[in-house]
Amino acid sequence: MPRSHDSYYVTTPIYYVNDKPHLGHAYTTIAADVVARWHRLNGRRVHFLTGVDEHGQKVLEAAGRRGISPQDHVDAMVAPYQALWQRLGIAYDDFIRTTEARHVAVVQAALQRLKDQGDLYEAVYEGWYSTAAERFWTEKDLVDGKCPDTGQPVEWVQEKNWFFRMSRYADQLRLFMAEHPDFVQPESRRNEVLGYLKKDVADLCISRPAARMSWGVPFPWDATFVTYVWFDALLNYVSALGYRPDGDSGPLFADFWPADHHLVGKDILTTHAVYWSTMLFALGLSPARCLYAHGWWTVEGQKMSKSLGNVVDPNLLVDEYGAEPLRYFVLREIPFGYDGDFSHRAFMERTNADLSNDLGNLLHRASSMSEKWLQGRVGALDEPREADRALQALADRAVATYGRELEALQFHKAFEALWELVRAGNKYIDTEQPWALNRQGDTARLAGVLRRCLEIVRVAATLLQPVMPAKARQLADQLALPAGALALPGCARLELLTEGATLPSPSPVFPRLEELPARVQALLQAATAAPPAAPAPPAPAKETPVSTPTPAASTPAAAEETPLISIDDFSKVQLRTGRILEATRHPDADRLLVFKVDVGESVPRQIVAGIASRFDPAVLVGQQVVVVANLKPVKLRGVESQGMLLAAGGKDVRGLVSVSEPLPPGTIVR
Ligand code: MSP
Predict the structure, then answer these.
(1) What does DSSP say about strands 155-164 and 204-205: parallel, antiparallel, or unpaired?
(2) Which pLDDT band holds residue 586 (cuts at 50, 70, 90)?
(3) Could you tell me if the CB of 53 is within 6 A of ligand 1?
(4) Which class would CATH give 343-478?
(5) Looking at the domain 7-294, which fold is it?
(6) Is residue 265 in contact with ligand 1, taking CB distance under 6 Å?
(7) 25 CB near ligand 1 (under 6 Å)
(8) Is the pTM here over 0.85, yes or no?
């Protein structure tokens, strides 16, 4: 069911209202907003949906603790999400709540239709239930007897339930994935789903008896059962468009389904790729064009916990840094799809370097020299020379690359392309030397050079509108451009400013951060002073911790006692970059994790590392690491380890060693 290319539909997951919004929620929502704004700027009709997931056991329990009804509870909990989206400048088109009548009606009609066509059946469910993940698990899914996603306890459930015949649609999904290689992105996540589909796909338990868990959508033919989260919530993507499983769906649905992008975090990939797609097939609908799973943020090198969550509370970040630099940073700092770390220092360095230095300086230099030597006016262009033509070619390339990469959700590449142009602008000033041109009285060249620099700032302002709309406006004001003058078509031409227009007095659009705000420093101190969440139990003697450096190197004092080695000794150690493909718990040792790491060879290495006390395996998949590649293989508690991951902190592992740029696996580290 093809639909026109002048429309674009993007969704975020709907977040559990139970938690207050955190950096992970803000990240996906910012990404969706930027890409939605970009398509709007291109003149396309856009529908951007976000919302909240309000049913489930967690909500019911939390409401019970507060002594209020679940509906009152969710009504109160939704406000912090909507308030944060407003502060972050999130321009969604629709915000769905799963308790709304428009959604509940669709869930019930979908249940009825699936039952009528024989896709639902009743059977006894026996297995584990995780309230934290609101999911059923089988015995073999559990890790150390706990929920594999959350590490939280699970409860044994034996009850009659309704099942969706998911197995019936597994082949259709296999075929769909083969025919649509871009359906699940990035590639590593696609492989994960293909791996899942290699095994038999079981049917899906989609209900709970209302007597045990009442806070869900009642089954229309039997209100003693309710459905929620992984049947109810997924349907939000179509219920918000006015889809009707049992009749006419209306114009929004016709215009916007299938969605162009479902943005999700890597932990909820299977539920979207497998549960949701098979549900759609059963309803006779096509899945989204692309399901894009992004990575997870760690905070200051550690897994996001309660105290570390406070350190990156999105409201704190907006208070201290402003929404727009934050929007830029989260999308610039790590490639979308990979895990990454939020560090306040990295924030300060990145925004100072890119925004204040590169872009801010280009504007400041060009406008203050225009003020001094061109009566504060936009100069006239002179006859283009070789350097000017090169600059124009670069601008053409930057604009084309920017759009292409942004639409592919490769935000960091889009910014790299734009910054190449901005930095070329600063270099152009250095080589053309406007001060010398002024001294020589070459006013025509002086005007042309400064004009081209201002034009580059205009290009940057135009392209940055979806990311930093208010800052883009401020840049436009500094260029004496009226509202609406940052149009995208043809914006690469370095000749669009109004010659002779009077520039306002230069004022900084991106003030430098000289040091971390006091409130941030205090929170960082408090969080890092706290003892590690789960101190590592003492290692059994035979178990060398593979991921940790030798104890002698773990503290500065011990390092002084370490004998010096020659460069020849050091050069025997082969260090390479690697990318973690899989991470699981060791079957036989609580403190060990077992990894599959791509180090650029034909087969991934299996590496065992003693870092389970610090890291959740799910958080590490996708992460770039540094591997000692020429260690003799050893067996650790029966599992062979073919190398070692570098980590900081000695026995109390504090962080994994990585490199600052994403590099191909196997790159030599020296
Ligand atoms: N309600 C379900 C989604 C249903 S969608 C039909 C849910 N909600 S959630 O509140 O737990 O939000 C999950 C989203 O936050 C996921 O996309 C998850 O990946 C993301 N994140 C949670 N912690 C994160 C980080 N530390 N970093 C980045 N994103 C993270 O699941």
Answers:
(1) antiparallel
(2) confident
(3) yes
(4) mainly alpha
(5) Rossmann fold (3.40.50)
(6) yes
(7) yes
(8) no
